[in-house]
Amino acid sequence: MTEVFLLKNQHGNFLEKSGEWVNPTQSKSLYRTLHKDEAINQKVELAVKNADLRVEITTGQVGPEGKLILQHCDIPLEMPAADIAAAAEEASSLDREMSQSDSEQTAEQEQAEPDLFSQPTTSQDAETVSAELHSIDSSEENNEEQRENSEQSSLFSA
Q1: Long-range contacts for 62-68 (Cβ within 8 Å, ≥24 apart)?
Q2: DSSP reduced 3-state for 140
Q3: Are 33 and 21 spatial neighbours (Cβ–Cβ below 8 Å)?
Q4: pTM for the whole thing?
């Protein structure tokens, strides 16, 4: 038996010779190489094309008839089609649950954090904001007047 190197993504799919990610039970033409450095190069090329992709190099054995035997595969190669469909449905329902949970958490965070850049919603809020801005402008004008007065007084004392 000969050891070969294969590429597996974060979803448990394997790279096919055509460049597609497939379930190992659905393809007989998985990408495989006898040299680990070739697998590493392929992994780097894939990572450059897709930054979200997580690829690991795994090993398999090629039997005397050329049949691939995967050692580190979570899915048995002789899985019936009905079991594959059930596993796919379970995975998609888990994805939906996680997606709903993420969107609920995002909504809760948005409600918990006030929007500091939103426009005032009532005329009273607008008046309050306007009064605060007027107060800031007035204090800046007073500061300028005080500086001018201090400069003039320093000129007279000299």
Answers
A1: 62/1, 62/2, 62/3, 62/4, 62/32, 63/1, 64/1, 68/4, 68/30, 68/32
A2: helix
A3: no
A4: 0.45
* Rounded Cα distance, 103 and 10, in Å: 22
Report in angstroms the alpha-carbon separations of 107 from 51, 104, 118, 120, 148: 27, 5, 17, 21, 52
Strands (E), the chain: 2-9, 14-15, 21-22, 55-62, 68-70
Retrieve residue 71's tokens: 């050692």
The pLDDT of residue 78: 43
In this predicted structure, the answer to whether residue 144 has a pLDDT above a threshold of 90 is no
DSSP state of 119: P
Residue 33, token pair as written in the block = 């190489």
